[in-house]
Amino acid sequence: MGSPATCTQSLVNITSRKIIRPSSPTPHHQRTLNLSLLDQIFPPTLYPAIIYFYSSDHFPSNDVSESLQTSLSKALVQFYPLAGRLNGPASVDCNDEGAYFLEAQVNCQLLDLLKLPEHSLLNNLIPEFDPQTAHSALGSAVLLVQMSRFNCGGIALAVSLSHKIADGTSYQIFVRAWADIHRDHEYESQLMVPRFNGASLLPAKDSFVNNLGLPKWLPEYQGLTTRRFVFDVTKIANLKAKIGGTNVQLVSAIILKSARAASYQSKPETSSSTAVLSQMVSFRRSMGSVVVENAMGNWFWPVQVVFKPNEMELHELVANMRRDITVFYNEKAGKFKGEEGFLVMSELFRERGELYRNTKGCISTYKATSLCKLPVYEVDFGWGKPIWVTGQSNQKNVFALFDTKRGDGIEAWVTLDEEEMAIFETDEELLSFASLNPSASVNHHSRM
Questions:
Q1: What is the reported pTM?
Q2: At what angle do helices 247-266 and 314-331 cross, to 10 degrees?
Q3: Rounded Cα–Cα distance for residues 417 and 381 (Å)
Q4: What integer pLDDT is reported at residue 345 of this predicted model?
Q5: 163 catalytically annotated
Q6: Which residues are within 8 A (CB) of 187 and not within 5 positions of it... i.e. 6 or more apart?
Q7: Catalytic annotation, pick one of 39, 163, 417, 427
Q8: Which pLDDT tens digit goes with each residue over 345-376?
Q9: Residue 62 three-state SS
Q10: Separation in Å, CA 402 to CA 42, 99, 161, 360
Q11: Segments of the chain scoring below 50 in pLDDT
Q12: Annotated catalytic residue: which of 96, 232, 324, 380?
C-alpha cells in the first residue's frame, strides 16, 4: 500500500463522460418548471458537492458504473427537472437533455486518502472541477455526478446539484431516492413523488433581484487556503454547559473568533470592521403542511448575524447567534408564502442594505453552512453505508460543517485568505477544541 503522500490530484484521471437521460420522456405538460422567489435569488451555481466514500467490501461483481447509470436514469423520471437546463433566473426547461455522469480512476488506495484527506485531491473527485465538463455544464446543467474508482476497488461518488433547485434537504431527498432505486429496482414504484411546487407557494418576480440596491457580491477563489478541522463534541459539551448554544453554533463561534483574530493580525485595518456571519437556517418545519416532507427547492434563509468590532468572546458570539436566529424563527420563518413572503424577503434585503450603508461597507463577511443532523450516512446503494461523507469549501471566508460518522465530532472545512489561514491554523484556542486534518478512517478493516 502506498504512502498517503502519493494520493495527489495528479493521480485522478477522467476516463468517461456521459449524459444520462430519464428512462421515459417527461410529459409535455411538465416541460417547464417555474421556480420560487427563493430559488430565483440564487445565482446559477451548484450546491457544494457532497462526496460519499464506499469501501470495496460489498461491491457486486457486475459493473457498478453501469448499474448507477441505469438507476439514475430511472430516478430522473420522477426528478425530471434534474435532467433539464436552467432557463433564466426563475425557470427550468425540463427537456430531458440529461444529467452529466463522469467516471474517473484514482491511482491510489482509498485508505491512503482517508489517512490524510487533501483538499486538492477531493476537488478532483468533483465533476465541476473537470474543465471540459465545466465548460459545457456550468450555468445551465442541473445535475452532475462523478464516480471515482480507487485501485483497491473502493469508490467515491460526488453529486452536484444546481442551487437553483435544491437546498441541503432537497439534495438528500434526491440522493437517498436514487440510492433506494439502485438497491431495490422495484422501489421505483414505491417512491414518494418529489414535489416541485415552490412557485405555487412563493412565485418569482421578474424585477425583484434587480431592485434591491445591494452591492454585487462575487465569490473569491484566488489566493485562498482550505483546511479541515474535526471538533471533539465532548469538548464542545463542556463549553455548551457554560455558555449554551447548539453544537453548530458553538463550532461556528470558535471558527469565527479565530478567523477574525487572524484577519486582524494579518490586516490590522480590519480590526475596526463589523463582522457578519451568514448562517443558513432551514424553515421547512415553520411552514407547516404547505412545505411537505418531499418538497424540492430552497426552503432556508441566510440569517445575517452582526458582531461589533469589540464583540470577540465566545459567549458574545453565541449569544448574538441565538438571539438573531430566535427572532427569525419567531417573526419571519413561517411567512415565506404568497404576498406575505414577498414582503418578508423585501424587508430582509432592506435590512441587509441598511447594514452595508450604515457601516459604509466596512464589513468582514463570513458564511457558515451545515449538513449536521442530515442523514448523509444513511445513503446505501446496496454496498452498505458510506465509510466517510464530506464536502468542500472553496470560497473565501466560508466554512462547511458535517457530522462525523460516529457522531462524536463535527468536521469543518474552512477557507480563508492564505496569510490569514497560516495564522488561523495555529490558533491555540481553536486547537484546544479541534484537530487539524486527522485521519478520516474509522477503524475500517477492508481491502481499501
A1: 0.93
A2: 120
A3: 38
A4: 94
A5: yes
A6: 180, 181
A7: 163
A8: 999 999 988 888 888 778 899 999 999 999 99
A9: coil
A10: 23, 26, 18, 35
A11: 1-5, 211-215, 444-448
A12: 380
